[in-house]
Amino acid sequence: MQSRYRIRTVLILSIYVSIASTALAADSEEVPSQTIRCAVIGGMMDTDFWPKLSKRFELSSCHRVEVVAKGPKHVIRRAFVAGKADLITMHASDVMINLVADGYGVAPQPWAKNDLVLVGPAADPAGIRGMTDAAEALRKIVKTKSELLIQRSLGAQQVLFDLVAMGRVQLDWQHVVVHLDDKRREMLLAASQKNAYVLVGRIPFLNGKIRNRDLVIMVQGDPRLRRPYLVVVANPRRQAPALAAATRQLAAYLHKPETQAWIAEYGRGRLDSQPLFFPVKIPGKNGPGS
């Protein structure tokens, strides 16, 4: 177990070194004006997050940012692989890492996070409403033999199973509902029918993007419920040198302290008291002790 954590620590540190070196190199380059084509996950477009962020970059540079693909990960991946996009951003996943492993992109870097919430029936049979420790809430769901629904999202599944592992929670599979065939994203309706709890993205839950009947938020605010986004830039062998340099500048801009501070406040008060997205902690970038 300890060796696994050491390996993970080495990987994280290597990513941070990559971030620092990439940012330093990009900031020092003088590049003529370029149009940087981007493939962006739908949630960042639906909330107007990426358009506003890219506009800030344009105002601080001589470059233009164009979104050439948006929507679910398979759509934006296709555009990136086809060489139609110079930069791609979506949740950290095998899809993103494979883009690098297969030679389409380089320098995967975490730069923002979003979060999930644990929702459930208003009657709250497990008595978890208002808790901020998601692992302890799962323990109570199991103890009270309440229903828990596992939805099709691999990201939500990863968060759930990480919580189970970290909290040493033993799921009661007699009270687990597996809901994987959900092309219409009706997991909340299914959970309501089963009187079950389920992990779901906070933004699509609050803005109504996912259909809901009567489920309410039970647990939120646990940092372990957050998922990182990665940015990957196109392999420079697939770009002209000036465009490759401009793309690196955009990726580096995402980690600037002023950008991270803006992320920490973006959308606060729109859906609830929290920002829509969260910054990441980068050594030497987020202040003393970060």
Features of the shown structure:
290 residues; nine-stranded mixed beta sheet; single chain; D-Maltodextrin-Binding Protein, domain 2; disordered N terminus
How does this model look, in words?
It is a single chain. The protein is α/β, with parallel strands linked by helices and 290 residues long. The chain folds into two domains: 2-113 and 228-263, 3-Layer(aba) Sandwich (D-Maltodextrin-Binding Protein, domain 2), CATH 3.40.190; 114-224, D-Maltodextrin-Binding Protein, domain 2. Helices cover 40% and strands 23% of the residues. Strands 1, 2, 3, 4, 5, 6, 7, 8 and 9 form a nine-stranded mixed β-sheet that branches. Helix 1 crosses helix 10. The longest helix is centred in the N-terminal third of the chain and has 26 residues, at 2-27.
Write down how many β-strands occur, each being a DSSP E stretch of 2 or more residues. Answer: 9
Structural class: alpha/beta
CATH superfamily of the largest domain: Periplasmic binding protein-like II
Multimeric state of these chains? single chain
CATH top level assignment of the largest domain:
Alpha Beta
Overall mean confidence score, pLDDT? 90
SSE pattern, N- to C-terminal: HEHHEHEHEHEHEHEHEEHH
Number of helices: 11
How much of the polypeptide forms β-strand, as a percent range?
15-25%
- Please give the largest β-sheet: 9 strands, mixed
Rg computed from alpha carbons, rounded to a whole number of angstroms? 20 Å
The third-level CATH topology of the largest domain is: D-Maltodextrin-Binding Protein, domain 2
The CATH architecture classification of the largest domain is 3-Layer(aba) Sandwich
| Count of folded domains | 2
* Unreliable runs: 1-17, 19-24
